[in-house]
Amino acid sequence: MLESHVNAAPDAQYVRQEKVNVATVDEFVAEHVKPDARVFLKLDVQGFEKAVIQGAQHTLPSLIGVQLEMSFVPLYDGGMLYLEVFDWAASQGSDLRK
Questions:
Q1: 42 has which bridge partners?
Q2: Which member of 14, 75, 77, 94 has the greatest number of CB atoms within 10 A?
Q3: How distant, in Å, are the alpha carbons of 14, 30, 64, 75, 87 from that of 96?
Q4: How far is 59 from 41, CA to CA, in rounded Å?
Q5: CA 78 to CA 49: how far, in whole Å?
Q6: pLDDT by residue for the chain (98 residues), tens digit each?
Q7: Residues 43/52, Cβ–Cβ less than 8 Å
């Protein structure tokens, strides 16, 4: 979390660290989702959007939609800003103006 985040939301703070098992979206979908399923992906990953998108390259073309948070100012180290999200969506053939 960057200082700009703390300044904008002083109550937002780390309280502990936890170890968790991690899988890519592609791995999760391959193991748990039926091939004919209609999948909508919602990301709430606190600055890890790029990593999640990179781990969903096989799944992305089959999704019916993606929802993720966009920031106008840097809040997390390495997090995507709104223009990066727009550029990524355009590279995937989406037009967010519609």
A1: 67
A2: 75
A3: 33, 28, 14, 22, 10
A4: 10
A5: 9
A6: 888 888 888 898 888 999 999 999 999 999 999 999 999 999 999 899 999 999 999 999 999 989 988 889 898 898 999 999 888 888 887 776 66
A7: yes
Q: Which DSSP symbol is given to 65?
A: E
The percent of the chain in helix, strand and coil, each rounded to the nearest 5, is: 35, 10, 55
Amino acid, res. 83: L
Task: Say if residues 48 and 56 touch (Cβ distance below 8 Å).
Answer: no
How far, in Å, CA of 53 to CA of 11, rounded? 29
Report which residue type is found at 90: A
8 A C-beta contact, residue 2 and residue 74: yes
CA distance 57 to 54: 6
